[in-house]
Amino acid sequence: MIGLIIAIIIFNVVAFITNIHLTKNQIVHIWAFTIALQGLADLYIDQKYHAYWYFSKGVEWESLLTLTLLIPPINMMFLNWYPYRSTLIRRGLYFFYWVMFMVIYEMIAMLPEPWGYFNYGWWKLLYSALVDPLLLIVVLSYFKWICKIEKIKW
C-alpha cells in the first residue's frame, strides 16, 4: 500500500504541474474515460478470469485507488506530452518509451507488500507489453475524438 500511495502522489503532482496542453474539460473526459475503461477491463480480466488482481483476490476498497487515482494521471501525462505533429518514427518511439515505462512500473507494483500491490494469476508481463500499446491507442483515439467534438460551435 505504501508504494501505491507514493505512486499516486507522484503521478498526480507531475500530471497537474506539467500540464500545459489539456483543458479542464479534456482532463475530466480523460479521467472519466480512464475509470470506465479500467473498470470494465478489471471486471473481466481481474474478477471473472482472475488473470491479475490488486492486493488480494476479490473486490476490495483499496482497489478503487488504482482505478480512480493512479491510472488517470498517467493518461494525462501521456496525452499532454504526446508529439502530435511529429514524424511517425518519433510517435512510435514515444509509444515504445511509454510501454517500457508501464511495464517497468508494473514490475515494481508486483513487489511484495507494503511496496507492491499487484499480483498475477495466469497473466504474464509479456501480455502487458502487448496490450499496453493498444490501450494507449484507444486513449489517444478517444482524446482526438473529444478534441474534434470541442471544435464544434453550438
Question: Briefly, what is this?
Answer:
With 154 residues, the protein is mainly alpha-helical. The protein has helices at residues 2-18, 24-48, 63-81, 88-109, 125-150, and strands spanning 52-54, 118-120.
Keywords:
154 residues; mainly alpha; two-stranded antiparallel ribbon; 2 strands; globular
Radius of gyration: 16 Å
List the strand order in the largest sheet. 1-2
Name the poorly predicted regions.
none
Find the count of extended strands (DSSP E, 2+ residues).
2
Average pLDDT number? 91
Categorize the overall geometry: globular
Q: Give the helix level as a range of percent.
A: over 70%
The first-to-last residue Cα distance is 46 Å
Query: Which sequence of SSEs, written as H and E, runs from N to C?
Result: HHEHHEH
Q: What about the largest sheet?
A: 2 strands, antiparallel
Task: Describe what you observe in this structure.
There is one protein chain. By secondary structure, the chain is mostly helical. It has helices at 2-18, 24-48, 63-81, 88-109, 125-150, and strands spanning 52-54, 118-120. A two-stranded antiparallel ribbon has the order 1-2. The longest helix is centred in the last third of the chain and has 26 residues, at 125-150.
